[in-house]
Amino acid sequence: MPVKTVFETEHYLRSSALPNHGKSYTVIPHGTVIDEARTQLAAAGFNIKKELYKATLTGDVAQGMYHLESGNDPEMGLMFVWSNSYNKTMAFKCAIGAHVFICSNGVVSGDLGNYRRRHSGSALADVATSMQEQIANASKYYDNLIRDKQMLKDVHLSQRQKGTILGRLFAEDEILTLTQVGIVKRELDKPSFNYSSNPDSAWDMYNHITLALKDSHPMRYLSNHQRVHNFFVNEFGNLITKTNTIMEPVTAKAPVMEEELVADFGVNFL
Asked: How do residues 19-38 score in pLDDT, each as one tens digit?
């Protein structure tokens, strides 16, 4: 059976049962991550506009997304995202990124302040330090993403190029599922949003794909988005940020994502 994820409350994440995997395993509680994210963002002068949380039905894998009051771009705002697990399927990871206002699509770059930490040793202290370091450079990362966005807006794609991109992300890179390919095809035929660019631009194609990724499991959210971002900027322009994609170990048992549930928050959460 597929592992289902739904939007949840902060209370649900905090009340999820903590694991007991032995002395070598350092528990990183979801609640501690929430508290640390708020503390570090506030210390850096960022106000949180919206908090969204997503989790498996058992609460053993969770994700937090924070839309921030920052940036002067009319189309994209700054965001901070983290993912955490209690079941050893992934290391804790977090990244600075951006969200598209009109649809809440996520934009996460390859080396965009990303960090992952296994649940061992001084994991809790290291998570706090790394969050602080990332957030301190958030404005620089955000400016780079704005530049990437404009570069993609200036690229015109033919129908053949669009089909090739879709095929490569599905069959070659294995980022998109068959269901998500269908969503992208639907968006190409009849877009749900106006992204303030030429409908045949690489930026529109990028957003059709990130919209399809709205049901990504917390385990794959950051890596999926980073890989898509790196694909586009490497394919059509100069990669502004370094390529250092967050990937899970090949031994991790990734759940099937085809039937994930997404609650209605009035936004398209990726």
From this structure: 877 666 788 899 999 999 99
